[in-house]
Amino acid sequence: MPDPKPAVKPEGPPLWKKAFDAMERTVAPQLEKAIRTDQFADAAAALAKGQNQMRLRAERASRQAMHAANMATATDVKRISDQLASVERRLNDMAKQQERILTALESDSRPSVGATPTGRRKEVTRPTPSSVKTPTIPASKSAALKTSKRGARG
Length: 154
Fold this sequence. Notes:
65% of the residues lie in helices and 0% in strands. With 154 residues, it is mainly alpha-helical. The chain is elongated, with a radius of gyration of 44 Å.
């Protein structure tokens, strides 16, 4: 049996690369010349404008469809996210303020309640049980209240 000959690697780039390079050398200068014209710039601008308008129309249609299906749109989510961030900032500010107040209350630098400028406590008079008047309810209202309470229970 004859030994198969090892495949000989051709020297240089593959055939497809040679064909591509030959075509590019022919076409590239003409394309570069066309790209540098005002007509090409106008056409590219018109295409970009048309693409932008189509994107805006698609977004509008998508947003309307999402609202019709009672689903949140990206705009809705962004607005809610901004509101949540605002609430979180306010909550953090309130927590800092609470911490400052607690620190101030715990410090000994504040005078105690009822202290006078000399540092002595002022006498505080509290009402005695005999000086406190107990409110009285007229008998007619008292009976009406008892009746309404029974009716509400049963």
